[in-house]
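Re: the request from the purification team.
They wanted to know what the chain is likely to look like in 3D before they choose a buffer screen. I agreed to run a prediction and write the result into the notebook, where they can find it.
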Amino acid sequence: MLNVSINTGGDYLEYLRPYILDVLVNDPPELITDASVAEKLLARCGLKIPSRTVQIILQRLAKERLLVKESGVFVVSSELPPSDLSAARANASRHITLIVNELIGFAHSNSNRILSEESATESLVYFLSQFSIPCLKSYLRGTTLPEIRSGADWQISLVGHFVTALQAQPNLLDSFMMLMHGHMLANALLCPDLDSVTDSYAGVVFYFDTPLLIRLLGLDGEREEQAIKEIVALVQRLEGQVRYFSHTYDELTTAIKISADFIDSYKGRGTIVGEAKKSGKQKSDLIMIASRAAELLELQDIKVVSTPSYGKENHKFEISEEAFSAVLCEEIEYNNPRAKDYDIRSVRSIYVLRRDTSPVSVEKAKAVLVTSNSSLSKAAYEYGKSFQTSREVSTVITDFSLANTAWLKAPQGAPALPKKEILAFAYAAARPTKDFWDKVLIEAEKLESSGKITPREHQLIRSSYSVQTELTRLTLGVEAALTDEGITATLARISDEIRKEELVQKNIVNEKLEQANSKLEMLTGNLDLVRQTIYWSSKSRASLEGSILSLSIWTGQALVAIFGCLNLKDDTSLGWLIICLAAISGGLRVAGTHWDIKPVNIKPRYINWRLSKLYERRLTNVGLPFDVAHEETIRK
């Protein structure tokens, strides 16, 4: 139900207003306070919203004279507008029921797994819970999703395969995206200090770690590349900078070169090797990418920054690397010790760059490390609680935390970001894990030794992306499903498909379907680009007009003050000018008293009002729809 229109440029806090009004009209607490209303929201809507966020809406209702605050308690002062969310609730339930039923059917037909409605719903919730905002104290819990028992990896794998399959059914994918949009909007409501959050990242530098740079170079799959580039473009639009440390560059080029050495070997593992084989890249291609990595990243305005030195001038800002290493070992099991050393250097560098600051929000943090490793983010957050520099804002955040918080600042500026994020994650979730695939290869060797599969079939299992995907889909990455009997039946089924050339035909069909979906995505992307371009140009125009208006008002105020100090005669030629300026000044003061308008806030209010008007008119001019139902919300 939170998936209201996000194409209007309105204040997303207003999305909470209907739910609070519903509580006050249909089930008001005995004493109306931010805490009591928050409890009612949890009971009626399942939304666990911080009291401070609720308080902001109650204060807005008080300014509109619907409520009045007496002795710390709000009292209804006039008749509240009627509220009935039953129709919206029924519509939301239809979408959720549709997705749940489709998932149940998909699980049975593709993985031979029987799901109840409850377990299917839990799988969806567990999948969406991966898209939370962890390790940002200002966002409290990190998600509004209901708390469930610990989920299982197979649930993420199942829903990942399910979402990937939904690309062939755009209507069902749209229904799933409603859940994603609603979840991202609900994440916004977790921040109790939304009034203090700025609409830009001016002055903030986000340092990407190695896996994110690998994505930017297109070595982690097309979906991941599209998603991370969308995040970078949005952050840069919001005046933030994206950089990486020189030691991260060393780790990046080393990882690519090592992968290049194994691309032609059956022992080759890892994301880079797997994606290279899938896309047809050769060893020479990876070596060239490694040699041009800095150049390719700089084309996206992502530059290298020298790692802060270990000189005496930085000693007092550094962390205890031994202590942080111990924390990391509790959260992450490193296969490569050097990877841990690189992570420690990155976190230590952020502390040095922040120096004596005590940021209370990401927008004030100066430097932030962005990673795809949520365990690294959690370790840095726990360690940072003891330091003023990182107590409120962790030195490390996940790429989705950045994507979500950036998208909430300007959802119209990146309308495709949520979809790209979820498709990238679904694609990654459908990949086999290292442990699972190791066991597959061990079992495959046994089957070849016993003569149950041929050497050619064994080689296909090792090198074919389609076979890997099929095995993972059938077992959902559960090692227990790889018993001798189970894997023999699975491999026999795949071998039969290979012999009958059914797998080849399936790939042809999938390729044609992918081409059709690619054309559809291109058309949808063009439409999103039009909306995005219109939004940013409208915002630029509104900002310019707001600056001119603000300058004019302040100039007029200054002239009134200057002329008031001059001892001018009544017959002076400037008399009428003084009277006019004084009248305008007086009119502004009366208007400010009545509508709470002050010279200092005229500019932002005008920009918001003008932006909505320009955006609506320009969308209409090119034949794109504009949600008129939320026009009043935009004006507020």
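For the purification team: Residues 432-500 form one domain.
Please add any questions underneath this entry.
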